[in-house]
Amino acid sequence: MGSTIPKQYLPLAGRPVIAHTLDIFLQHPRIAGLVVIVGGEDEWWPEIAANLAPAKPLWVAEGGAERCHSVSNGLEALRRHAHPSDWVLVHDAARPCLINADLDRLLDQLADDPVGGLLAAPVRDTLKQVDGTGRVATTVDRSRLWHALTPQMFRLELLHDSLRSALAQGLLVTDEAAALEAAGFSPRLIEGRADNLKITRPEDLALAEFYLARKQRMKDGEQEAEKSPAPHIPPPASHPPNLGCMRIGHGFDVHAFGPGESITLGGVHIPHARGLVAHSDGDVLLHALCDALLGAAGLGDIGRHFPDSSAAFKNIDSRILLRQVVTLLRERHLTVGNVDATIVAASPPKWPRTLPPCGSRSRRTWASNRTGSTSRPPPPNGWATSVAARASPFMRWLF
């Protein structure tokens, strides 16, 4: 993360990451108590604990050298308070975006399971296996591959004994399910949302803030619906797609030139004598596209979802913003069919003559990378993309 502060204590939407994570379980009616595993030299936890007022038991256990040692220590502490057959959920402190619907689904579907299981998400990206020189050796079949998430849910004694057995064999398992697998059990996968992300990179903080803001809007909407006599409207994902409906959105963005050595268009960095004045990376092409997509979906504009008053979006790569917008569309069963964009710009006199090639380069790069930019495979025929560049000597901004 490039920070001296452990990732679970980094600020996120005005609070430490772990505070958001703890709220999920402290506020859930089906969770009886919590154990927080803290490193022996942790100087941040005391301040967090001082600001907590839990209405249910919260104990602290000392961490170990690896995750498996830490979880084992936590289970030892829990054995003094829980029954051996009680269900235990192990969750990463750096996963603050878990939603109640996923947690409830995990609890419900594993309630009578003889082993237990974990939340997981299907692998959607193409996976490559490399050789010793860093070259691709083969493409891995992803049809049966899943990303392991948390919480992972097992009965206390079974998980305790499986972890102890794995450690006795010298196995440093990286999650609890692996300990059960080593003991001969087959944990069950429960599909969860991919936005239950683990914060591991700086850009994850911006994504997490976006997800938390959306989660809060959904919660506020549910509370408002309870107060209102109006009939309840199901969330967007439950609506069947309207295959006969076409929506059209228009987007516009402008940034003034300022100090810098490059500009970014469509995710492409273009060397230039000046930069753009912007809170994010100033990618007017992707900002306009985000606005158009949000407008077509009736979801407001880019400023509503990614406000420039938030430090989380400072200098953020606009491709990340585009991925989140496409996620919102996907939840409403909307698919992008065509994108047509025109870039109008002017700067020092020599730049207009170099702009059209830059526009062409943007078109080629963006079209070839559109799957990566949207975090999903394109429709069968892909996005139909068109980017045109226009120069105007009277402009001192980039549109």
Automatic annotation (TrEMBL):
<feature type="domain" description="2-C-methyl-D-erythritol 2,4-cyclodiphosphate synthase">
    <location>
        <begin position="246"/>
        <end position="348"/>
    </location>
</feature>
<keyword id="KW-0414">Isoprene biosynthesis</keyword>
<dbReference type="InterPro" id="IPR001228">
    <property type="entry name" value="IspD"/>
</dbReference>
<comment type="pathway">
    <text>Isoprenoid biosynthesis; isopentenyl diphosphate biosynthesis via DXP pathway; isopentenyl diphosphate from 1-deoxy-D-xylulose 5-phosphate: step 4/6.</text>
</comment>
<dbReference type="InterPro" id="IPR050088">
    <property type="entry name" value="IspD/TarI_cytidylyltransf_bact"/>
</dbReference>
<dbReference type="GO" id="GO:0050518">
    <property type="term" value="F:2-C-methyl-D-erythritol 4-phosphate cytidylyltransferase activity"/>
</dbReference>
<keyword id="KW-0548">Nucleotidyltransferase</keyword>
<comment type="pathway">
    <text>Isoprenoid biosynthesis; isopentenyl diphosphate biosynthesis via DXP pathway; isopentenyl diphosphate from 1-deoxy-D-xylulose 5-phosphate: step 2/6.</text>
</comment>
<feature type="site" description="Transition state stabilizer">
    <location>
        <position position="279"/>
    </location>
</feature>
<keyword id="KW-0511">Multifunctional enzyme</keyword>
<keyword id="KW-0808">Transferase</keyword>
<feature type="compositionally biased region" description="Polar residues">
    <location>
        <begin position="365"/>
        <end position="375"/>
    </location>
</feature>
<dbReference type="InterPro" id="IPR029044">
    <property type="entry name" value="Nucleotide-diphossugar_trans"/>
</dbReference>
<comment type="subunit">
    <text>Homotrimer.</text>
</comment>
<keyword id="KW-0456">Lyase</keyword>
<dbReference type="InterPro" id="IPR036571">
    <property type="entry name" value="MECDP_synthase_sf"/>
</dbReference>
<protein>
    <recommendedName>
        <fullName>Multifunctional fusion protein</fullName>
        <ecNumber>4.6.1.12</ecNumber>
        <ecNumber>2.7.7.60</ecNumber>
    </recommendedName>
</protein>
<comment type="function">
    <text>Involved in the biosynthesis of isopentenyl diphosphate (IPP) and dimethylallyl diphosphate (DMAPP), two major building blocks of isoprenoid compounds. Catalyzes the conversion of 4-diphosphocytidyl-2-C-methyl-D-erythritol 2-phosphate (CDP-ME2P) to 2-C-methyl-D-erythritol 2,4-cyclodiphosphate (ME-CPP) with a corresponding release of cytidine 5-monophosphate (CMP).</text>
</comment>
<dbReference type="InterPro" id="IPR003526">
    <property type="entry name" value="MECDP_synthase"/>
</dbReference>
<feature type="region of interest" description="Disordered">
    <location>
        <begin position="354"/>
        <end position="385"/>
    </location>
</feature>
<feature type="site" description="Positions MEP for the nucleophilic attack">
    <location>
        <position position="198"/>
    </location>
</feature>
<feature type="binding site">
    <location>
        <position position="255"/>
    </location>
    <ligand>
        <name>a divalent metal cation</name>
    </ligand>
</feature>
<keyword id="KW-0479">Metal-binding</keyword>
<feature type="site" description="Transition state stabilizer">
    <location>
        <position position="7"/>
    </location>
</feature>
<feature type="binding site">
    <location>
        <begin position="279"/>
        <end position="280"/>
    </location>
    <ligand>
        <name>4-CDP-2-C-methyl-D-erythritol 2-phosphate</name>
    </ligand>
</feature>
<dbReference type="Pfam" id="PF01128">
    <property type="entry name" value="IspD"/>
</dbReference>
<comment type="similarity">
    <text>Belongs to the IspF family.</text>
</comment>
<feature type="compositionally biased region" description="Basic and acidic residues">
    <location>
        <begin position="218"/>
        <end position="229"/>
    </location>
</feature>
<dbReference type="InterPro" id="IPR034683">
    <property type="entry name" value="IspD/TarI"/>
</dbReference>
<comment type="function">
    <text>Catalyzes the formation of 4-diphosphocytidyl-2-C-methyl-D-erythritol from CTP and 2-C-methyl-D-erythritol 4-phosphate (MEP).</text>
</comment>
<comment type="similarity">
    <text>Belongs to the IspD/TarI cytidylyltransferase family. IspD subfamily.</text>
</comment>
<feature type="region of interest" description="Disordered">
    <location>
        <begin position="218"/>
        <end position="237"/>
    </location>
</feature>
<dbReference type="InterPro" id="IPR018294">
    <property type="entry name" value="ISPD_synthase_CS"/>
</dbReference>
<feature type="binding site">
    <location>
        <begin position="301"/>
        <end position="303"/>
    </location>
    <ligand>
        <name>4-CDP-2-C-methyl-D-erythritol 2-phosphate</name>
    </ligand>
</feature>
<dbReference type="Pfam" id="PF02542">
    <property type="entry name" value="YgbB"/>
</dbReference>
<dbReference type="InterPro" id="IPR020555">
    <property type="entry name" value="MECDP_synthase_CS"/>
</dbReference>
<feature type="binding site">
    <location>
        <begin position="253"/>
        <end position="255"/>
    </location>
    <ligand>
        <name>4-CDP-2-C-methyl-D-erythritol 2-phosphate</name>
    </ligand>
</feature>
<feature type="binding site">
    <location>
        <position position="287"/>
    </location>
    <ligand>
        <name>a divalent metal cation</name>
    </ligand>
</feature>
<feature type="site" description="Positions MEP for the nucleophilic attack">
    <location>
        <position position="142"/>
    </location>
</feature>
<feature type="binding site">
    <location>
        <position position="253"/>
    </location>
    <ligand>
        <name>a divalent metal cation</name>
    </ligand>
</feature>
